[in-house]
Predict the 3D structure of the following.
Amino acid sequence: MTWKPRGWAFLPLAFAVALSALLIACWGGVERRILVVGVNQRPLTLDPHHHNDSVTWAVLCNFYEGLVSFSADMKIEPSLAESWENVDPTHWRFHLRHDVRFHRGELFRAADVVASFERARTDPHSAIRHHLLGVTRMTAIDDLTVMVETDGPSPTLVNRLVFLPVVPSSDAKLPEITEPNGTGPYRVVRHDNPDWLLARAWPGWRGLPDIREVKFIFDIDNHQLFRRFLEGEIDLMRQLPEDQLGELRAFPHVRAEPQPRLAVHMFSISVPEGDSTAARALADVRVRRAILLGCDRQRLVGEVYRGTAEVASQCVHPAVFGYDPTVVVAPYDPREARALLSQAGFPNGFDVTINHSPAQAVMIPAIIEDLGKIGIRVTAHEVQWDQLQDRMREGRTEIAPFGWACSTGDAGDFLTSCVHSLSPALGLGRDNYAHFHDARVDSLIEQAERELDGGKRLLLLQAAQRRTLEMLPYLPLLERVLFLGASDRVDVVRRHDQWQWVAAYRWRASK
């Protein structure tokens, strides 16, 4: 006799199948709710004080916080400090948040801020010491109050404190922090593989973010990372390769999000020593203006950078405090450029050298062609960026392209570093690649660095910029735009500082 199971006999099997399907679905759902972010560089370190690298900031900002932070459009916002006031020209009082804990559970206190400051200031491996210039002391008045003393009026102090991540006092004693323990919206749960890092949302003072888990994948081959993005392995890609943006059209589940940058790309003009033709020419402001007018920067935008740039009117980005909206873009005018060269005594042009890094090589042929049309004969030499920077500092370049981002969100960043004449005693002019000196500009910059009234300081910064554009030690070229790759599962927030602030992202509703 053959046994035939009755209907109820199927229940255990049906239940098992249904349960398995449910578990698979649930697991798949959990797996799908991990945001995967592709980054085309490994963080230099997990120690928040031992780097000043843009990619490392972009990752570590999720784990560590400072007293203040930047909004997406570079406005200062409270972070670990709820509020602050300028007590007098050299003292600032910061009031800290209550009931904030580090990822290992320690209660956040003023002593942690002081210990982090001392570590960043004295650690031989500190890479953020320059952000603390002028700060002479930090004192814990009580558990939730910190007093900051400076050696003079310091209008950019609060901006610079964005770059002082706070760690517990115990961690501040370590020679190298290898286990992140901050107060940020995510805590690291796995980092044993150099190619990826897993983090989980932290129920801190901000509350739980919408994205509960995030996996950062690091791959120095940006094109390989791009393939993984197109195949759906990655939800977000920090920087899409510009030469492959067109491929996105064939993949409806992904999109390119314009990512503004603070960097302005420009030429540094350094007058060589001696009485060579190039030295005499580059020393004349009319020649420097002719070079600017002779470069078809709109052509660079369209043909070289495929629309991923804008022509710059000045040397700081529009999102930066101190930008002057009254300054208009210098036009492409080869006829006027030739006239200026003739007025300066160079009707037949002259020979000049451009030294450039590999990253700038793509635009050099167009520059050579444009300047050749007005009689300036260019010889180009490619060198690695670190070597080029050394040559620029030593005055061994004639024309050199470089980019500068005012990471503090303030034009004083560029003006004090690149425009003010070299003054080691004042800590000014450290990156004055043009070896420029103008007493009037120096005075305006120095006044701005002492002025605590925001309105007055804005006028001083703008005046310094206008004077710099009259003298043209630097020729503003372009503001570059990068693109963040995003899948159709997530909404992102664009940031001018390019920090990958995952706590602001949101899952999209399932279709």
In short: The domain at 36-40+184-253+488-507 is CATH 3.40.190.10 (D-Maltodextrin-Binding Protein; domain 2). Residues 1-32 have pLDDT under 50 and may be disordered.
